[in-house]
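Problem: given the chain below (415 residues), write out its structure.
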Amino acid sequence: MHDVPAIHAERTSAGWRLPGIANLHSHAFQRAMAGLAEVQTDPADSFWTWRETMYRMAGRFDPDTLRAVATQLYVEMLEAGYTTVCEFHYVHHAPDGAPYAPASAMADALIDAARITGIRLTLLPVLYMTGGFDGRPLGERQRRFGHDVDGYLRLFADLHARRDDTLRVGCALHSLRAVPVDAMHAVLDGLPDDARLHIHIAEQVPEVDECLAVRGGRPVAWLLDNAPVDARWTLVHATHLDAAEVAGIARSGATVALCPTTEANLGDGLFPLREYLDAGGAWGIGSDSHISVSPVEELRWLEYGQRLVTQRRNIAVAAATPSVGATLFAGVQASAAASTGFDAADDAVVLDADAPLLAGATKDDVLDRWLFAGNRPLAREVHVAGRTVVTGGRHALHADAARGYAHAMRAVLAD
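Solution.
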């Protein structure tokens, strides 16, 4: 096992100060459908039936509604302690597939929301070309996601030219099923050497089975054999792995982005966390579909899922850090820069030292208390890129963002 450096809270006059947390996987528009996919539509409801609801919701967005929903979401993230978000952005075009003018209009809405709220944004425009491993065309409800290689690289170049202290632009391959092999290599060849690369992979068993049938290998094994996977890469979910794939990801230096609340909500399965930690693998967390916007809940359920499947306690620990909270927090900090492209060492979350849940806390137990002792939000202050964006537990735009979100939701949900 390769231990990562321990993270300790610092007691200050304002409260317990900790590094900010990177949210490695976000689909901002899906915040608008949180709680709206919990009604059975099929006795065998699964990720695949949920996806139909998601397509219907995606079809209702325009740049204005996306900006409003993303602004509310990013306010919620900052108030929860996330200071950076990786936005896996695939709703590019108008619902009929026609490009907006400019073609970056939907991405611009996300950039605007990040600038307004003060969160660091790693924008990941998504290449999405086919409807499955067999190369079938995108369906009607997928048309607004699609690009050819040249169009995608033009969009990437436009967005990448705008990077600054709080904006990075990387590349997202939607999934192996959505990106043909030749297109993947063409895009990789067209990217800057330092571009971060994110991909959904091995989230569902049918995806694994189809990859085996069409490409002759399991998704992660195929990717490791056919792409230059290294520390620039983030593999999102990677739920269904065999032992060789666990070892291969760890060896490559790639990060796995785990999204426990979404993975549980969708019935994806459980990542082999203990085996991956033992292999020395890098990992972080994301809130993905945003049925929860809380690093506390992601980390708590990452550990609790392992306890349920092993019928043991205190699974995510390391030799140097027997505290579960300290081990989990060290893990998300160790992977953040490689996955996001930011050196955000000065970003910070300050926990309310006066909160009853932290009464008598010490630097050795404050992380365990924060992650495992209730649901009251404890972030008192949040600092990003030298700017205080949350004070007294509230973002300055808390009320305005909520009003804008309510207006957007009425438009999105209108018949």
